[in-house]
Amino acid sequence: MDDPTIATYDRIAVEFARRNFDLTNGRYLDAFARAVTGNAPAERFRILDAGCGPGRDSKWFRERGFQVIGVDLSAGMLAEARRRVPEVEFRQADLRHLDFPDGHFDGVWCCASLLHLPRHDVPAVLASFRRLLDHGYLFIAVKAGQGEEIEERTYGPGSPRHFTYFTRHELELYVERAGFEVRELWEGEPTPTARHGWLNLLAQTALRQPLLGAVAVVFDDKGRVLLSERADGRGWNLPAGFVDALEGPDETVVRETREETGLDVEVERLVGIYTRPYRYKGTDWRLITHAFLCRATGGALAPTKEALQHGWFSPDGLPSPMSSRHHVAILNDAVQGRCGQLTLPVMRRIERGR
Ligand SMILES: C[S@@+](CC[C@H](N)C(=O)[O-])C[C@H]1O[C@@H](n2cnc3c(N)ncnc32)[C@H](O)[C@@H]1O
Fold it and tell me: CA-CA to 69 of 20 to 30 Å: which in 97, 120, 254, 271?
């Protein structure tokens, strides 16, 4: 094993277990277990004990009925865990390369192990914990402080372990950036023999909602559709935008059409709801778009900061390039709706392409 920290744990596993197996972590385990289960039976919930060491906390979860899997990189620690807690499944794995399916767990318990990773690995490991939980809870215990160091005091010379220390603020930021909301943070003061206190954090997966958008399909009295050439160079599109926090999508199309084109419109009817994958600010989302057939009521077309120019186009002669396949599908449905071939609003899922 190349990692000196893991080599140390392999060597000190028996002594570590002797010193730590009977310590009690009850207050935090209770709070975590309560959060995970609500009032439901523990048997329904799967816990990952991430960096489980000799399995003390895995045992606690198992005794209370949880399904639990312990992972650790140290073969020595796993041998102790298997001997002491044979009823639990333990796997050898690096926290940096966990290969469980997405959403496999309801809780990730990470006690005194994240602190052994180099700081630059921490965001990716927390992001992988987030992927392993659809909706669930994360517990982390790390040592409070600043910087990183190789420590050889606790188990003596020749027993180096890498430690990364965290301030309270740093830990909260890492966890929030990985897609969690902090629920509790208990700070333990350093004891006379320990230089570092502990930060014990309970977090819940933050709700990730899809993006909401709205699109206006506006025809003139010759049956031509209003399109705008985007100022960002991505081609032509229907007036469209994201729904604001205090808006309904029917209000969004009116606002967006005015902002983008200068035209005032009113909504005539819903054409349909369209969903598609969408990349926004470096993250994958699903975009849910409400498309409305709208009628112009006033205003005048003018270039804006979002659009270089506007035009009325026959649906058979669209300008090129169109910015998205999605808008072409919406336009086709609106054309069919206009000539009575489509009477109800449609619901379309678009899987690939722009
Ligand atoms: C201080 S012990 C804590 C063990 C246990 N969670 C407890 O609270 O008693 C740290 C554990 O993290 C494990 N560990 C360190 N780096 C790891 C990594 N990259 N992947 C998996 N486990 C790791 C070590 O092998 C060790 O068992």
Answer: 120
- Closest by alpha carbon to 129, among 86, 164, 100? 100
Q: Supply 142's token pair.
A: 């790390």
Ligand 1 within 6 A of CB of 77: yes
Quote the tokens at residue 248: 């309904």
- The residue to mutate among 15, 19, 23, 72, having the most atoms of ligand 1 within 8 angstroms of its beta carbon, is 72
Cβ neighbour number for residue 242 with a 10 Å cutoff: 16
Global pTM value: 0.77
Q: Is the CB of 154 under 6 A from ligand 1?
A: no
Distance CA 237, CA 229 (A): 7
Give every residue of the chain whose pLDDT is below 50, as ranges. 354
158 neighbors 12 (Cβ within 8 angstroms): no
For ligand 1, the distance from its centroid to the CA atom of residue 73, given in whole angstroms, is 7
Q: CB–CB of 75/10 below 8 Å?
A: yes
Q: What is the pLDDT of residue 91?
A: 98
Is ligand 1 within 6 A of the CB of residue 55?
no
pLDDT tens digits for range 172-181:
999 999 999 9
Percentage with pLDDT > 90 across the chain: 84
- Which domains, ranges and CATH numbers included, belong to the chain? 4-205 (3.40.50.150), 211-349 (3.90.79.10)
Q: How far is the CA of 181 from the centre of ligand 1 (A)?
A: 24
